[in-house]
Amino acid sequence: MKIYEKAPAKINLLLDVLRKREDGYHEVEMIMTMVDLADRLEMEELPRDTIIISSQAGYIPLDEKNLAFQAAKLIKERYDVRKGVYIHLDKKIPVAAGLAGGSSDAAAALRGLNRLWKLGISEEELCELGAELGSDVPFCITGKTALATGRGEKLQRIGNPPQCWVVLAKPPINVSTADVYGRLRASQLESHPSTSDMLSAIERGSFGDMCASLGNVLESVTLSLYPEVGQLKESMQRLGADGVLMSGSGPTVFGLVSKESKVARIYNGLRGFCKEVYVVRMLT
Ligand code: ATP
């Protein structure tokens, strides 16, 4: 039997870092939502006790470094599953882009293997397993829109943001999340985006206030390392996006656009100098 799971990309409408913890992680406040740009996982049971990963994308690891491999290994160990699995990753989400592609693949593998092997694991337990693989994995398991606190693993579901078009543009650089957090200095944390303003904008369904409340403290690090990310933000703003922000640790920049008539102009304008541009919707 084969089963399929979608692994959508996430964007951060807000990303704040409160402090560095003693365990090395950062205490964060993030408002995250999913968009309809997704990898697709095909999973098939193997009689031999082994995990095999394949992908059409030539640029991701296919061994134990792959997060879907790690998810399969973890669930097999914890639930004493002696069967194997073949997982094919049809990658559509750009890699090392700030869109949580790897985390979403891990989440989809956990959800899918729970179904494939009829393990009956609750969503809460899946999230606990996911947190062992990465801070964004629990959110990728539950999806929708959430406020994430702690190191990103404590989730509080919130209502859907006002619907709009989302233009994603990824400049041709790969950014390491660990490197960006490692370079974050206390002086860059003197001003913070307002989580309460963003929550209130979403609750009131105010698109304008949601755009005005976008904020990401990691921008100061990534933009100083890669000025092209700042230039991309400016271009998106100039082309008419209503709100513009870098997602996660970057380098992907997203623009929120309320009017469909503006989307083609922004897309075409960006495509002139950026090869990876996507027009998507938020998943509600
Ligand atoms: P985040 O927003 O959670 O920081 P990201 O979008 O910046 O994630 P990923 O696309 O998850 O980054 O990739 C980060 C690294 O993880 C890459 O260097 C890649 O080699 C590795 N990786 C492991 N498994 C996967 C996977 N299934 N898909 C993509 N990358 C993977």
TrEMBL record:
Function text: Catalyzes the phosphorylation of the position 2 hydroxy group of 4-diphosphocytidyl-2C-methyl-D-erythritol.
Pathway: Isoprenoid biosynthesis; isopentenyl diphosphate biosynthesis via DXP pathway; isopentenyl diphosphate from 1-deoxy-D-xylulose 5-phosphate: step 3/6
Chain ranges of the GHMP kinase N-terminal domain: 66-144
HAMAP family linked to this entry: IspE
Keywords tagged on the record: ATP-binding, Isoprene biosynthesis, Kinase, Nucleotide-binding, Transferase
Reaction catalysed by this enzyme: 4-CDP-2-C-methyl-D-erythritol + ATP = 4-CDP-2-C-methyl-D-erythritol 2-phosphate + ADP + H(+)
Annotated EC: 2.7.1.148
Catalytic residues in the record: K10, D136
Protein's UniProt name: 4-diphosphocytidyl-2-C-methyl-D-erythritol kinase
Record SUPFAM superfamilies: GHMP Kinase, C-terminal domain, Ribosomal protein S5 domain 2-like
GO MF annotations, alphabetized: 4-(cytidine 5'-diphospho)-2-C-methyl-D-erythritol kinase activity; ATP binding
Binding site for ATP: P94, V95, A96, A97, G98, L99, A100, G101, G102, S103, S104
Source organism: Paenibacillus roseus
Domain GHMP kinase C-terminal: 198-274
Family classification: Belongs to the GHMP kinase family. IspE subfamily.
